[in-house]
Amino acid sequence: MKNEHKPVIGITMGDPASIGPEIAVKALLNPAIYELCNPILVGDAGVFEDIAARLQLDAVFRVVRSVSDTAFQFGIIDVYDLDNVDLAQLQFGEISAMAGEAAFASVKTVIELALADEIDATVTGPINKKSINEAGHHFAGHTEIYAHYTNTKKYGMLLVEDRLKVIHVSTHVSLRQACDLVKKDRILEVIELLHNGLISLGETNLKIGVAGLNPHAGDSGLFGTEDDGEILPAVEEAKRRGFDAEGPVPADTLFSKAATGYYGGVVAMYHDQGHIPFKLTGFKWNAEKKQMDSVKGVNITMGLPIIRTSVDHGTAFEIAGKGVASADAMILAIESAVQLAKNRRKNLQPA
């Protein structure tokens, strides 16, 4: 039954040739999700119906054209239908402009719905950047799409999995460019985004560890000047502004401490510096079965005027349509979106 007090969560299809539709449907077959929120899938209804039939998932769908038409009833999955995929042309695991256009349209639609206050938060399934670009949309990823359509200039990618919370100074750029982007002002900006993100998640440990860029955090300039010249001044300024920040800390020791909860959150200098330890924590590979047993981790875009969480894994084209994809990360992303929406609602209430 529809509950006005539960946050309305818009969940995108992701790339229709990927595991995105599968994990979205699997997540909404979990009755616990409907106890937490009012979920609605956004994408092509035919894609969801097709994957459910192929995998013999016990799913029933209700096609809607507006959020107001939804019932939010467990056992019947509401789909905001964009009707933009030709199933006869869709091939699992293949890059195509059609799939890219469909994935992009679902993302743009949930952004519009959130900006119009028709939904309380957005959750995104995995997209393929090449398919998106082949469709004519030249973005590096979800984060940049959201920043563009919400006119956001200061933003960051926050990864959350149990005790480990990591935000990045840079993400989808070359390693060479990432080093050039390690600048005091950006680092300070990201420390503030992380601090605000921890509060929005309801965390009480606000101690922030800031990673060094170079081996041994530069070792007093022996292995590069960025740590002493850019990172340290940013940390010192953050402390002057009242943030509980520490660094630069050599990355090879920082993350082992962070995984125990010593830091409430960590600032990584570039994509892989943060993603590798994060995925070692949340991704469990089964060597015997040659597949992931579990894929956990949530990606939250900080700094936006709307809430966006996402699975922190890719399209997994190699297993698309096979029924073995785990919905763990999608469920966690929905749970995080609910928590953020509730905290935002609480903060907006008059004192």
TrEMBL record:
Keyword Oxidoreductase: yes
Molecular function GO labels: 4-hydroxythreonine-4-phosphate dehydrogenase activity; metal ion binding; NAD binding
EC number: 1.1.1.262
Keyword field contains Metal-binding: yes
Record keywords: Metal-binding, NAD, Oxidoreductase
Alphabetized InterPro entries for the sequence: PdxA_fam (IPR005255)
Pfam family for this entry, one: PdxA
SUPFAM superfamilies reported in the protein's UniProt record: Isocitrate/Isopropylmalate dehydrogenase-like (SSF53659)
Name of the featured protein: 4-hydroxythreonine-4-phosphate dehydrogenase PdxA
Species of provenance: Larkinella terrae
